[in-house]
Design the sequence.
């Protein structure tokens, strides 16, 4: 079926990686990938520990203010002056 990877597909993929990177570099690449995953998980966990926008470090609520954007209407726009062109004779 289309979209499914059979065990034969996985063997071909692993074989291509072995040819491209060699047997020595594959463990190093896997180690680097593992380190990257640990760092990513640690950073995502650190985001959960930061206070949200409605609370401070002490936990006291902070009032949120909202300022509406200023909309410039069509009356505030001045048209460009006409460009003078030479008359063709």
Sequence:
């Amino acid at each position: 079926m289309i979209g499914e990877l059979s065990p034969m597909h996985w063997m071909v993929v692993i074989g291509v990686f072995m040819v491209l990177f060699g047997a020595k570099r594959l463990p190093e690449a896997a180690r680097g990938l593992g380190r990257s995953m640990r760092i990513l998980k640690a950073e995502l966990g650190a985001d959960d520990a930061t206070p949200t926008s409605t609370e401070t470090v002490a936990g006291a609520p902070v009032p949120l203010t909202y300022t509406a954007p200023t909309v410039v209407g069509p009356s505030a726009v001045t048209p460009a002056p006409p460009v003078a062109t030479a008359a063709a004779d």
Summary: The chain is about 50% helix and 0% strand. The chain has a mean pLDDT of 75.
